[in-house]
Probable tRNA sulfurtransferase (Natronoarchaeum philippinense), 399 residues
Amino acid sequence: MQPPGADTVLVRHGDLNTKSRQVQGAMERRLVANLQALLADRGVDAEVERRWSRPLIHTSERQIEDALDAATSAPGVVSASAVRAVPAERQAIETTLAEAAREHYHEGAFAVRGRRADKSVPFDSEDAQRFGGTAIWEAVEDEFEPEVDLDDPDLEFFVEIRDGEAFVFLEKVPGPGGLPLGTQDPVVALISGGIDSPVAAFEVMRRGSPIVPVYLDLGDYGGVDHRERAVDSVRTLASYAPNHPFDLRIVDADETVDLLADRFEAGRMLAFRRYMYRVAERVAEETGAVGIVTGEAIGQKSSQTTSNLGVTSSATTLPIHRPLLTVDKQELIERAKDVGTYSTATIPAGCNRFAPDQAETHGDLASIEAREPDDLFERAERDADAAEVVGLGRGANGI
Ligand code: ATP
Ligand code: MG
């Protein structure tokens, strides 16, 4: 919902305001570049203007919805609004609000919310609310019986005054929040293509970290469909950041998985996960990534008990980030739907086939290490080096 003639998107970011001016400036430049790439990728003809603390997207009325959609997909954006920008003058504001009311007011109570970030205009936010409210009232009173309710209105009209302009809009559409992508160093994302791992990867992207995605192909324990859904989920993640590379590394773990299945009954999953972290560590060394992100959650599977997370984590010295550590499955499903990776994730995970009948919930590091093949970590490095690399980034310019 937007006022007639809206051809601009007002973008709000959150966490950046707490940074020094220099850091905020750099982060805003990054956000502007990311927005420009997202718009281009979606075929929106638009120019992003960097204004202190509120970037603006100038586009056409025809493409305003698409521009708003793009803006509210970008990590770092708290919310955005499709606005009509007019001079910060009483009459222009009244006319714009009256037009918006004639288009959108049908019944019930309304409210005008004023905000003045530019103290040079001769009226304050309360004045704007008062004269704006009157203009709306007069525009619709012949046809309806308008009411004003500031606490629980059915329709809100916003007037935000900045830099000599008044921005008139009707809603604030939430974005993912967080920080602009590319403002943190990259991390290796272990992507199984299940429900959880793409959500975990999205979480670190949302906080500004690019990902280096890695998928371990479990051979007969996995299957072609598993590989495909991992590819699909990385493609979806890439659509949030078209100016970043998403080179998926597909690691052939077939031989190692068979070997572990022969050696272990209970505990094989722990050894496998230790191998997996070591693969990730090797990829991190090669790509400059500074950590690992997984979709693990406490107790979700036997390999994810608090005690087993300790046993497996000791395989690497890199920090393992687990943004979903305390999130319940039902909520994870909702988040996967929001990110857009849920539909590809509904086949049972390959790991389930590899899991033993009697799972180990309190693995003992010394006995796992004693049974692991001596060359488990060398294998991990060798397999990581031999990975197939599939470029899934969208290749838009402007990093
Ligand atoms: P789900 O729990 O929805 O089946 P998942 O991706 O969380 O999917 P888990 O078996 O819970 O799968 O694995 C825990 C984590 O280990 C995953 O979130 C992922 O980060 C990593 N992982 C598991 N299997 C693989 C794999 N084949 N390749 C890469 N990473 C994997
Ligand atoms: Mg899981």
